[in-house]
Amino acid sequence: LMRPLQGCRSRGVVVGTVTLCLAAGWALQTPGGVSLVVPQPNINATVAQNILLSVEYSCRGVATIEWKHVSSWGTTSIAEWRSGNHVNISTVYKDRVTTFENGSIQLRNVGMRDAGYYFVTVMEEHGTNAYGTIIVNVYEVIYEDLHFVAVLFAFLAAVSAILICFMWLCNKSLHLFQKKTTHKLTASATEEIELETIEC
């Protein structure tokens, strides 16, 4: 009585294993599944800089890539495209965004309003999605401080040049004055000698 049961169990294990292998093979052959890698999830930039929001996706089918920007000013759609097709870029970003085949985008001439969260969604045609987030921090270059330092440096350089010229002129004047004084002394000494000679 036990032997047939063991045979059924061993057949069940074999059938289960074969079914599992077939299912795995079917899953590998069936288009579907998407993966997304975000190599740099945090980007620091300064105003007027160009930044690359880099991602890399892989997909068995045709994918649709969508980028959105979320900040304290609200949510803005940046771009959407299907791999190999026309890119739809929103009017706000029309002249500032370049898209790449791997799903990345470049944002040119960033401003303070470009800080925030950038969400990328890769949607595969069979319904599988992958999501990624990049945080962008934008810092202002404080031109006022740089301007003040530049003006101060120029002022100090000008004052130094004026002082050097003034010292040179003073030195020249002193030298000329000493020459004249020596000449006068020599002339008066000569006159005295001549007077003494006359008196004698």
What is the element layout, followed by pairings?
Blueprint: H1 2-29, E1 34-37, E2 42-46, E3 51-53, E4 56-59, E5 63-71, E6 74-82, E7 87-89, E8 97-99, E9 105-107, E10 116-124, E11 129-139, H2 143-199
Structure, described:
With 200 residues, this protein is α+β, with helices and mostly antiparallel strands. It folds into two domains: 32-141, Immunoglobulin-like, CATH 2.60.40.10; 142-190. The chain has two helices and eleven strands, in the order H-E-E-E-E-E-E-E-E-E-E-E-H. It has helices spanning 2-29, 143-199, and strands spanning 34-37, 42-46, 51-53, 56-59, 63-71, 74-82, 87-89, 97-99, 105-107, 116-124, 129-139. The strands form three sheets. A six-stranded mixed sheet has the order 2-11-10-5-6-7, with no helix packed on it. A hairpin with a 4-residue loop joins strand 6 (74-82) and strand 7. It is rod-shaped, with a radius of gyration of 43 Å. The N and C termini lie far apart (169 Å). Residues 1-31 have low confidence and may be disordered. It is found in: Membrane. This is VSTM5 protein. Keywords: Glycoprotein, Membrane, Signal, Transmembrane, Transmembrane helix. The chain crosses the membrane at residues 12-29, 146-170. InterPro entries: CD2/SLAM_rcpt (IPR015631), Ig-like_dom_sf (IPR036179), Ig-like_fold (IPR013783), Ig_sub (IPR003599), Ig_V-set (IPR013106).
At a glance:
Residues 40-139 form the Immunoglobulin domain. Helices cover 42% and strands 32% of the residues. By secondary structure, the protein is α+β, with helices and mostly antiparallel strands.
